[in-house]
Amino acid sequence: MNWGALLAPYTQVVEELKVKLKGIRKQFEYESRHSPIEFITGRVKPVPSILEKAESRQIKMTDIEQKIQDIAGLRVVCQFVDDIYTIVEMLRSRDDLSIIEEKDYVSEKKDSGYRSYHLIIEYPVETIDGRKILMAEIQIRTLAMNFWATNEHSLNYKYKGRIPTEVKERLQRAAEAAFKLDEEMSKIKSEVQEAQRMFHRK
Ligand code: 0O2
Q: Which stretches make up the RelA/SpoT domain (predicted)?
């Protein structure tokens, strides 16, 4: 398998989408409006992770591009929960990509406590052999959700996917605390906005 050649267009997808998403952030900044995007990261799944996923799901080498939907992965991190839905709406209305799947783990958390909004998109990329439509995964989450997921991911790595029950329970409690923090921040935000509206009306 020539991994370099296979992954090159995915690197292109990640770079192009990073530029486009950063563009959204900049436009909000130029207009001095609250940006629903705090920061963006992106990566191409490393070959060992692709192989591991293919093996665990019994995916044939020839099916990798069709069945592993997150070879190209983007992560959009926001300040507030409602920013997540603002971004989803913005992505739904774009015609340079098409959404083929949506998973709302924000309102329906996973058993682990994980929260995030996932979109699987199809994105056209120009290659030296012509246009290719590739899939990418966009994960959208708040800073608090990201903090939790990053730590849980490291623990999963440390315990090779077998986190002890006690640690799992702690993580679930931490996930709840992170979600409460998000809820409190949203309330504060609404109150501040309401106060600003009243101030402007005077
Ligand atoms: P990595 O190392 O982040 O790339 P799929 O994996 O898409 O084929 P699935 O499981 O239905 O199938 O997808 P799902 O639930 O949308 O999850 C995909 C990605 O979401 C994972 O990719 C993680 O990045 C993230 N994720 C999902 N659940 C959890 C969780 O409980 N904790 C954390 N920290 N992240 C989670 P990978 O490939 O598993 O891992």
A: 42-163
